[in-house]
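Bug: token stream looks shifted between consecutive jobs. Job 1:
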Amino acid sequence: MMNLKLIEKLFILLFLGFSLCAVQACDDDDDDKFENVNNNNDEAVDLGLSVKWATCNIGASSPEEIGDYFAWGETEPKKDYSWETYKWSKGTDHTMTKYCTDSYYGTVDNKAMLDSSDDVATVRCGSNWRMPSQMEWRELYEQCTWSRIKNGYKVVGPNGKSIFLPLGGTYEGTILEEYDEDGNLHGQYWAYSLGYEDGDEDFDNNDASRFFMANEMSDCYFGDADRCCGLNVRAVQEKGGIVQNHKYVDLGLSVKWATCNVGASKPEDYGDYYAWGETTTKSDYDWDTYK
């Protein structure tokens, strides 16, 4: 009988120890949890910022997956990310056929922001999704808490909700460059405008804006990359609603504000110009033509 009671006590102690370890393991796993919403649905994560963020990269089925790589302005992945295969050039970085504001780089159309038909986030996920702007990437970087876990970063918004951004490297030609010059894992994500440096109003026509994510948070930065390179894409969704086909945002003021100027398709587009009291655009704005 003594031996049986001793065995029973040992069994209880082992059971309690196992339960304690299991609870501790669950507590540790909580640090790595984030919202798990499929970015191909109409759902998005509101981090408490100006836009909602998808939980997965385009082409990924879970937050940790890298997803597909895209040249800027293209909507399909491919094997070779070079100027020779780039959709909007004639094979070089000075023969652009679209999104060009300087004749030195190609045929000028004065487009600096992606059309919806060339925005892979819109094409893949629907009309209420798009690529982020560089300012929206900056907002995510500066107003959220970033933690290096697994193969990327957990990003916690001001309201406590989170997303995960994996480090997937960059395609240059046919080669996937997963590590930087110091041998550390890195990732890059496109924004929807042509490339330009802070404080510089002139676009660099053969580059597009991107956010570079380094292995260390202090080494992350904003800049640009050759448009032909293959980068990952994370979609965003406008907050607010739609009135008569125009998106609006409730800023907590007496009225709601449209997200774009009249005649613009995106917030950073200039849109159309009007004389006061007139409802159509024209080529000559002076007293002789004033309605």
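Job 2, same session, no restart:
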Amino acid sequence: MKLLAVVLALLSERLLGQLRWWNRLDLPALWHRLLAPWLPAGGVRAHWLAPLLLWGPPVLLTAALDLALAGVWFELPRLLLALGVLAACLGPEAFNVRVDAFLAAAERGDEAAARRAAAALLGDEAPAGLLRQAQAVAAALLYEGHVRLFAVLFWFFLLGPAGALLYRLASDTARRGHGLPAALHAHLRRLFAWLDAVPAHLFALGFFLAGSFDDAWHAWRRVWATELGLAERNRTLVVVTGCGALRHDLGRDLDDHGEALRWVRAARALVLRAVVVWVGVAALMTLSGTLA
């Protein structure tokens, strides 16, 4: 059932991304605004109470529904629940739709639209100039593809819909903050880094098979030879290994518009190939009975 839900969710990702009302439906932000008045201001109490309040209720409710629907009507309601949770976790604004928006604007030469699309992918202000934007977007979408696609699917396979929802809420809190006090936000970012560690390393390993194995291996070793914090290591490992798999030097400035856009397309293709590699592994494990 999990494998079927993943395949259907990936097929529907582009369709949902085209719906304007879906792109405006930011469920994590709505949930954070609802709970903001109830969160403790700071201190040790906030460090354990905040994640319980922010992530606990929707995750526990989803887990309870998933268990309650087991064996009901040939598992169809359970499949619909899984599809709904995956759709919410993969959206709003599907990964592919964001990349398409940047590429279309860059090809038109519309710098304002390209900068807005780049900022949406980067989660921050985009640099000026299409070449610099393309360089930043290509590197960022390697990790963005991990957070928005692979890691959600990893936690779904591991813990079902509740696992996917937990990761999505944690990543949204860590990356956007939602006005939380700085100390509390830093604590939640550390918690997210632990949730992100295993899928980040597995996704980087997927680049070995999806791109140049030898170059990806050398890039992986360079990252592990560098002293980094856990959160920074997760991101750097995905980005640097991905660039190695593509045989691209992050330090080299791009001087051709066409080459810059090809680099963005190549980075997206690598992400999708790596996702397919791991979905294929999950399919083999499911068929062999290793993965329930």
